[in-house]
Amino acid sequence: MTRCRILVVEDEPLIAMFLREFLELIGHDVCAVATTEDEAVAATGKWHPTLLIIDEHLKEGSGLAAMKRIEYTGVIPHIFVSGDVKRIHDLRPGSEVLRKPYTPDDLEQAINRTMARSATSETANPADATGPT
User: Fold this and answer.
1) Fewest CB atoms less than 10 Å from the CB: which of 8, 49, 56, 94?
2) Residue 91 CA to chain centroid, in angstroms?
3) Residues of the chain under the 50 pLDDT cut
């Protein structure tokens, strides 16, 4: 398992608390929890996470819009969390999407898939690993 520095983007306090505790239990660092689109963008710039777990529906903004803004500065592995997986796949083909409700095992498997895919793409094209030039 790759140890990740994770930014959690979740506006429901109990879910955010569960995510932080579980992620730390399985050996990851949670650098921050953002609750809005703007906070997610700012926290990414401040903490430079290696992975984002991002809820699609936020009370202020959306996870999709936040990820689009974040990607202007570079590619960061991410997992969307949504009850509408088809919608995310239609808008962001190839994205890792975790369907609500999910189990801790589902989350851990999604992290492993996402980080393995990220490592493979960095190895295949190292220039893309640093973001756009």
Assistant:
1) 94
2) 16
3) 128-133
